[in-house]
Amino acid sequence: MNPNFAYVTDWIFDLDNCLYPASTGLFDLIDQRMGAYIQRLLDCDPAEARRVQKMHFHDHGTTLAGLMKHHGVDPHEFLADVHAIPLDRIAPDALLSRGLGRLPGRKLIFTNGDAPYARRVLDAIGIASHFDQLHDIHSAELRPKPDRHGYELLLERFAIDPARAVMVEDMAQNLKPAKMLGMTTVWVDNGSERGNHGHHPDYIDHEIADVGLWLDQIMKDDQ
Fold first, then answer.
1. Phi and psi for 10 in degrees, rounded to 5?
2. In the chain, is it the N or the C terminus that has fewer CB atoms within a 10 Å radius of its CB?
3. How many C-beta neighbours within 10 Å does residue 159 have?
């Protein structure tokens, strides 16, 4: 293990556009379903639905958070609808699976999505067996990253010592609360929409482009 990470007991990973490349375009499918959902909800055209969707995403961290606040949308119904997508754009990742398998300590998922969708994605990548726990949007009491509340619930729920935890995330702004709570932060700079929004070196400890390659590198001494 790279000595810079030898102290870590808990590894916390985001899911979408983090454990698979943003270039797969998987989230584009969710984006399309969000737009269609908003068209039905507001009886509007695609352009207006797109405007509303991105406004809420930018203002509230997720489209869902904005729709709940301003339109009273049921989160269970919304998430089930927008996550009903095929997963053939992603494939098993042997390098990532190998790295996670060799990584000491607990591995957890912290996602703004819901648990059923997250498990489908983890199965599609072939890495579900490596994760000990999953903290989804419902576990965060529907307050999405970067709202600090969900992070505090995560630490409490799993008795995580933030000084011995690493958080890996493709959205730079989502690392600020983690850093403020005492975690080591790793930003996955891989082209996610608004991935660099809110980027600041004060709360980003490490920058990488691919999680599988990074795990392979920090575990080299263990071969």
1. -135, 125
2. C
3. 7
208 and 117 together in one domain: yes
CA distances from 147 to 35, 58, 113, 173, 222 (A): 24, 13, 14, 10, 36
Q: Residue 116: which of 148, 75, 157 has the closest Cα?
A: 75
68 and 102 both lie in a single domain: no
Query: Which tens digits make up the pLDDT trace of 142-157?
Result: 999 999 999 999 999 9
Strand duo 106-110 + 184-188: pairing: unpaired
Residues 15 and 33 in one domain: no
pTM value is 0.93
pLDDT in tens, 82-141: 999 999 999 999 999 999 999 999 999 999 999 999 999 999 999 999 999 999 999 999
As a whole number of Å, the CA-based R_g of the chain is 17
Instruction: Round to whole Å and give the CA distance between 25 and 21.
Output: 8
Half-sphere exposure in the Cβ direction for 36 (13 Å, CA): 10
For residue 171, the tally of other CB atoms under 10 A from its CB is 24
* Separation CA 93–CA 126 (nearest Å): 7
Q: Which domain holds residue 32?
A: 26-82
Please indicate, yes or no, whether residues 188 and 112 belong to a single structural domain of this protein. Answer: yes
pLDDT at 221: 56
Return the sign of the alpha-carbon dihedral for residues 5, 206, 218, 156. positive
